[in-house]
Design goal:
By secondary structure, the protein is an all-beta fold. The chain has helices at residues 89-92, 145-148, 308-311, and strands spanning 28-29, 46-49, 55-56, 62-65, 70-71, 74-77, 93-96, 100-104, 109-117, 129-134, 137-143, 155-163, 167-176, 180-181, 183-190, 197-201, 217-219, 231-233, 240-242, 248-258, 264-269, 271-273, 283-290, 297-305, 318-323, 332-339, 345-352, 363-370, 373-378, 381-387, 403-411, 427-437. Strands 16, 18, 19, 20, 21, 23, 28, 29, 30 and 32 form a 10-stranded mixed beta sheet that branches. A 7-stranded mixed beta sheet has the order 1-3-4-2-15-9-12, with no helix packed on it. β25 and β26 (332-339) form a beta hairpin.
Amino acid sequence: MSVRFRLHRRAAVTTAAAVALTATLAPLPIARAQSPVPSVRANQPIRLVAAKVPMQDASSHLWSPDSPYAVGGRLVKSIAQVSGTANPFLYQFARKGVTGYRVPVHTPGMYFVNLYTAELRGAHPGRRVWDVTAEGHASATAIDVAHTAGPDRAWHIMFSVPVTDGMLNLHVVRRVGAPMIGAVEVDYQSANVVRRELFNDDFNGPAGRAPSPLRWRTDRGGKGWGNNELQSYTARPRNLALDGHGHLFITARRERFTGSDGVTRDYTSARVKTQKRFSFQYGHAVARVLVPKGRGLWPAFWALGDNINSVGWPLCGEIDIMENLGSQPHIVHAVVHGGQTSGGTWLAGAPLKPALSVAGNYHDYGLVWGPSGIAMSIDNRTYMTVASGDLGPQDLWNFTHSFHLLLNLAVGGDWPGSPTSRTPFPAVMSVDSVRVTG
């Protein structure tokens, strides 16, 4: 949930639309020989760019020519201004018509694949569509960057794949037009070679019961939560309870209440978290949620770094998988917050207008997270991506440690504004399920 625990000064860097990282930095060629076809190791990702010479990005990461790894295609170059990245050359140098990549890995395990692409050639939606299979299994289908991201915008295709034979085989399959990929990063993710369910809560139980204390803890109190919010969080069944039909109800009410912190406020609600119950580092998380409608309501499904108590915000990192303003029932937001070397913050985010209103309907809000990238989706439609390779030298990638999950329904605050007399109370955020695989 954007802008919380704001004890640190927020930097002046903001985003108007997708990502506040656009820059015009030129790539820096590196004139030295590279070792022949190195493999991915635990602390050594493979970073490739569709160019003839090695290049260095703004954070001093080396990107090697992709020719020893790529199968098919030809190198092309564009001078288009690419938005959403501090390293546009990762997209402007592209391999058009590529049919695959063969990337050696040092040891069996789970590997995270991050493909960098942008629609630089003016193709309209439906005119450049392709699939990716990894190790013989479909990993991304019907990729249409013009439709999903629009023209000249940095975009990513991200997925994890188990590799057991020492070679990661990626196949790029053309549907319409010629696939175009600018850069490829492959990271070691874990020693596991089988995906498994790490966390699952379907909120089954009798009506009025609290969610499982083995999975969830509650936050309590009402001191604004860093956003000048108006609610006091409680653990009362009036604000937090199962409905008896497989849902968790988080209920915001307009009522005068004095919390355990001694602060009297005009609204109550609830916030639950898996902190000290469950955390994970990399994987896929999804929550099926119905959000309420009404000005001043602010439901969210999000994640915070487990190290928040030791390093504070934003160095802990924050991943807002779903945020909605009750006054905008047809828009959903996904946002990522990280720290900067100066002590400020950077953020990347994107809004989406789904075909159906997010208010009053259940939707699946998803996260794909790996060592070098984050993607977020609604109903399996990815609409926000960001990668460590998009960052400038002052921006820190604070997403390589464990995170815990949060669900809450805030009332008022700096972003949604205050409720009005027309805001319906009680307002219910209903959670059908939460699952994490990795």
